[in-house]
Design a protein that fits this description.
- The chain has three domains: 1-30 and 263-447 and 507-536, 2-enoyl-CoA Hydratase, Chain A, domain 1 (Alpha-Beta Complex); 32-257, 2-enoyl-CoA Hydratase, Chain A, domain 1 (Alpha-Beta Complex); 452-496, no CATH class.
- The protein has 20 helices and 20 strands.
- The chain has helices spanning 2-27, 33-41, 47-54, 112-128, 158-169, 187-190, 209-216, 222-226, 228-234, 245-256, 282-285, 296-300, 357-373, 390-394, 397-410, 425-430, 454-471, 478-496, 498-503, 516-527; strands at 61-64, 84-91, 94-101, 132-138, 173-182, 194-198, 203-205, 240-242, 310-312, 320-327, 330-337, 342-343, 349-350, 354-355, 377-383, 385-386, 415-424, 440-443, 448-450, 509-510.
- The strands form four sheets. Strands 1, 2, 3, 4, 5, 6, 7 and 8 form an eight-stranded mixed beta sheet that branches. Strands 9, 10, 11, 15, 17, 18, 19 and 20 form an eight-stranded mixed beta sheet that branches. The protein has a two-stranded antiparallel sheet with strand order 12-13.
- The longest helix has 26 residues, at 2-27.
Length: 542
């Protein structure tokens, strides 16, 4: 029976992974094959080709925000990946944040979500003190939506503020102008440490030839106005010009090969080991029916290095599993929701995926220990929320939950979050959701992120709708009520999807569970570039 269940789960998960891979391949085409050909005809590489050429051969690239913009801006023809490719890659063995405008998507124009994605890339670079390489090829702000991208605090202008702040922090920033670079966007490469430009295809100016004509009546072509020769030989705005993309990227590699080493955080690492069990066995262990229980330790053993997991307080607060382990040699502290039903020493049954007072108390103490020992934290989420009801309330669940949130929020060691399944309500918060500054946050394709489960929310929303209709003197029959419930459920379930979350950057990526080790390992390697601040938990509720 167990094998039958495993095979059923595995078959379903493999279908989900196939859908993920298919969606990823389509998204990576950006504006499509025709637009890619147009880039090639101009003698240009695409954003993805530039990154592949720039990064070390056979090295890993950890893409951030592949599914950004998914299903958004349909009236404007869509904006795959937000019109920009971003991620962590190795250049001359040095981990860098690389940001490349995708000129196949609306000429690389900035949509509101593009700004959010660029700011997320800069945030990751600032938190981890990583060098940033900008490959600029953008028509600037998407004018029809300028009110949603231009004036606010977290809009387009924030990136230039970040350029200045990163420079003051000693973070290396290198920029290459490999296509258009206009208006306010012209400040980004020029606020970098060094700006290079590709001859004939690169151009940079505050206003293009049409705007110059309209504003001051001057007739001038874009190349004379702001091409490579102008800026390298007349204005001095750019530092060097290159005949093509490849030569420009070779020069960036040369720069990065000479950058000195900076102070490290000093996280512990030993010789890596593979997990004791094949990571892809997770497909069969993870129930396709999300109500069914499973033992989270089985999942952990397929993510961490063999023989490295030491559980903390295994006999207490059993709905959260805490323990020390290693991933690819790096020491980590794990905080994971236990999804099987457990029994405490008082003989009480506790539901899997629910945070009780004892488990919140244990997790808070464990998080503080990890900070004391300078061990990065990994949160594995499959959480329904905190326990409710008079017994829990009288037992001080809010106080214990606050203790856990306080320790987690004030934690100064880097935090990484993987949403495996449910991520509901305050459980999302306590388990280091997006609002709590995880260095990276990724979701498996089985993740569901919302204030409550789909069925609970749909029934609640239906009751509100029916009461509202009654207040207007209207009544609805059983069939109409069922149709209304289906409509509400379908809409809510769409919002539960990990792709919905990824399109809005609530998570950095939707990943195959087999990639979890890579995300944690590269995340810690990035975080190791930024020294850890002193931990101060503040006032703890006791």
């Amino acid at each position: 029976m167990e094998n039958l269940e495993f095979n059923k789960n595995e078959d379903q998960y493999k279908q989900i992974i196939y859908q993920l891979d298919t969606k990823a391949k389509k998204t990576k085409l950006g504006g499509g094959e025709k637009k890619i050909d147009e880039q090639h005809q101009k003698g240009k590489l695409t954003a993805r080709e530039r990154i592949e050429y720039l990064t070390d051969k056979n090295s890993e690239f950890l893409e951030i925000g592949l599914f950004v913009g998914e299903g958004m801006y349909k009236e404007q023809g869509g904006c795959p990946s937000g019109g920009v490719v971003a991620g962590l890659g190795y250049v001359q063995d040095r981990l860098c944040m690389i940001v490349a405008n995708d000129a196949t998507v609306k000429a690389g124009a900035w949509f509101p979500i593009t700004a959010k994605k660029n700011l997320r890339a800069q945030e990751i670079a600032m938190e981890n003190r990583l060098p940033v390489i900008y490959l600029v090829d953008s028509a600037g702000v998407f004018l029809p939506m300028q009110d949603e991208i231009f004036p606010d605090k977290e809009h387009f202008g924030r990136q230039f503020r970040n350029n200045a702040k990163m420079s003051a922090m000693g973070i290396v920033q290198i920029a290459a102008i490999m296509g258009s670079c206009v208006a306010g966007g012209a400040y980004l490469p020029i606020m970098s440490d060094e700006a290079m430009i590709v001859d004939k295809t690169g151009s940079i100016f505050l206003a293009g030839s049409y705007l110059v004509k309209a504003a001051i009546g001057e007739d001038i072509d874009n190349e004379t106005l702001g091409g490579a020769t102008t800026h390298c030989e007349i204005s001095g705005v750019t530092d060097n010009k290159f005949p093509n993309d490849q030569a420009c990227l070779d020069y960036i590699r040369s720069i990065m090969g000479k950058v000195g080493a900076f102070e490290k955080a000093g996280f512990d690492r030993v010789e890596p080991k593979a997990p004791a069990f094949d990571t892809k066995e997770i497909y069969g262990l993870f129930p396709s029916d999300r109500v069914k229980p499973y033992d989270t330790i089985d999942i952990i053993q397929r993510i961490v290095d063999e023989d490295s997991f030491d559980e903390y307080k295994a006999l207490y607060g059993k709905t959260i599993v805490c323990g020390f382990a290693r991933v690819n040699g790096w020491a980590i502290g794990i905080v994971a929701n236990q999804r099987k039903v457990v029994k405490n020493k008082k003989g009480e049954m506790q539901m899997g995926g629910v945070i009780y007072s004892d488990s919140a108390d244990k997790a808070a103490r464990f998080i503080m220990n990890c900070n004391q020992r300078k061990i990065p934290l990994v949160f594995l989420q499959d959480v329904s929320g905190f326990m409710v009801g008079s017994k829990s309330e009288h037992g001080g669940i809010i106080k214990d939950g606050a203790k856990m949130v306080n320790a987690m929020a004030n934690s100064t060691v880097p935090k990484f979050t993987i949403i495996m399944g449910n991520s509901y309500g305050a459980g999302n918060y306590a388990m280091c959701g997006k609002a709590y500054d995880p260095r990276l946050i990724a979701a498996w394709p089985t993740a569901q992120i919302a204030v409550m489960s789909g069925s609970s929310a749909a029934k609640t929303l239906l009751q509100i709708r029916v009461a509202s209709l009654k207040a207007q003197g209207k009544t609805i029959g059983k069939e109409e009520e069922e149709n209304l419930l289906k409509e509400i459920t379908d809409r809510y379930n769409e919002q539960l999807s990990p792709y919905y979350a990824a399109s809005r950057l609530w998570v950095d990526a939707v990943i195959d569970p087999a990639e979890t080790r890579k995300w944690i390992s590269m995340g810690i390697e990035a975080a190791n570039n930024a020294p850890v601040e002193k931990f101060n938990v503040g006032v703890i509720q006791t």
